[in-house]
Amino acid sequence: MIHSKPSLPVILPGCLAAMLVNGCSGPQSTLDPAGESAQKIAQLFWTMTAGAAIVWTVVVGLAVYAIKFNRGTHDVHQAGRYIIGGGVVAPTVVLTGLLIWGLALLPGLVAPAPADSLKIRVRGAQWWWRVHYQMPDIGGNVFEVRVADRQRSGRDSGIPESAAGSKPRDDAGPVAAPSAAEPGTRFFGLANEIRLPVNQPVQFYLESEDVIHSFWIPALGGKVDMIPGRQTRLTLVPTRTGVFRGACAEYCGTAHTWMNFYVIVMEQDDFSRWYRAQALPASEPLTPESTRGAELFLSSGCSACHTVRGTQADGTLGPDLTHVGSRVSLAAGVFTGGNPGQPSVDARDFSEWIADPARFKESVHMPRFGMLPDEDLRSLSVYLQSLK
Ligand code: CUA
User: Fold this and answer.
1) Ligand 1: nearest atom to the Cα of 250
2) Nearest residue by C-alpha to atom 1 in ligand 1
3) Measuring CA to CA, which of 3, 263, 277, 292 is 20 to 30 A from 102?
């Protein structure tokens, strides 16, 4: 017996329904906006879609009319009017209108945030996000790089030479200023998670540590590339609280698909509490198991790549782990407790990740620590999870 394949008219409505159900809502949907820019982008999308639908309907309607109901010949002048009117004038008017309206949205999307706004620097790296917040009560602007800073900064750019080139290039645009090399006093770091206060403008400063990445929080706004040797900017204003998912939107190597992060938009009071707590050094281990984990963290070599502020661990290659236990996901969105919409992490996730990172993220730079006895892995994980 021969089974016939489902035909296009059967597949198409199914695909459309699936897209509508899955694509229009959720933590990573550009059509479920939770920010001012995303609102404008969604509005642009729906207007363009409606415009395209109207044009399509009119064109197909006329074609059907001509084929089915009006097959006679037309005189040359009348045919000419149809062609000029329908083929030149109508598209020009419609497309010009949509173009002008679309371009008019741009200034609002690229305008910088007011000078006293929250400032966050995010650096893309294969395959995670280094996030810096200015220390509370620190004035000025720690992250902004002006073109003039480039001449002064030279090779102190904070961007690895392998990425920035062995000598500063004249056409490379601004790079990070020398002030960038003062962690702990002017800014503090975290990774793969960004928390924002609702209804407040935020100024992002975006940089790359290796290749081109693209920073995108679909529910909050448009995407902006992170380019080695340059600083790009993005202003966002979240308009409702919630957990949103961000992603790298530029292919950047083997594990590009595992370069994600979470954005948690909070009420101002909750955010202020979180912000001040994140700026503090790590809490002391309180149980024998987490104390053992803290010792192992130093003796096993973790501290060569990771910082835990307030301890001897001051490595800067990998993510800052000072408050890693407070984060909702692990390994740039690899571990989410099986629920990408309401992510959570437990000590077992830490153990599995530390034992064999490449099992979850191909080509990851972190080495495997599967040679540690299970008991040690557990102590390490308990310690890391206690870093709230
Ligand atoms: Cu980073 Cu794709």
Assistant:
1) 2
2) 213
3) 263
